[in-house]
Write a structure and sequence with these properties.
mainly alpha; 159 residues; single chain; 3 strands; three-stranded antiparallel β-sheet; 40% helix
């Protein structure tokens, strides 16, 4: 049982007919009508930094309106077209091959929606064979889809 009155500055603990204490607050007593503030979270600290930054950055209203006729440099900077260069090759950020066999098997398990350990031995053998032949993403996924979407639900080997 905790013994702590409204106007007490120390705390007593009673356990099995023995009283322990007094225990004092780490920061001292809190006067009536005052409360300790909560510690700010990362999101709250970030929001405050953004608010301060927004107060420091002051753009003229014309810069925010797409009206190039007023002649302001800020408005012209926003209206000018950004130079663009089209990619000649396919998107360079798409990887065409898996980095290794483990990554390929993880992708196959994600595509099937179940762990490979739950497949039967014939299905696992086919996956091992396909991954041993190539690490090309398109080829692997095509063969896996062809095998698992066959009429016999993965019982037939499609080459």
């Amino acid at each position: 049982m905790l013994w702590w009155g409204l106007f007490d500055s120390e705390l007593y603990v009673e356990f099995e007919d023995k009283r322990y204490g007094p225990y004092h607050s780490v920061n001292g007593p809190i006067p009536l009508g005052r409360y300790r503030s909560f510690k700010k979270t990362k999101q709250q600290k970030r929001a405050e930094r953004i608010e301060v930054l927004a107060g420091e950055i002051k753009l003229p209203r014309a810069a925010l309106e797409n009206n190039p006729n007023d002649g302001s440099l800020a408005a012209l900077a926003l209206v000018q077209e950004t130079p663009k260069t089209a990619f000649v090759d396919p998107d360079p950020f798409i990887e065409f091959t898996f980095p290794d066999r483990v990554a390929a098997k993880q992708a196959i398990a994600a595509e099937l929606g179940l762990p490979l350990a739950k497949l039967n031995q014939e299905q696992r053998d086919l996956i091992n064979q396909v991954v041993a032949e190539t690490l090309n993403k398109r080829l692997i996924l095509e063969q896996i889809h062809a095998f698992f979407n066959s009429p016999l639900k993965g019982k037939q080997h499609v080459k």
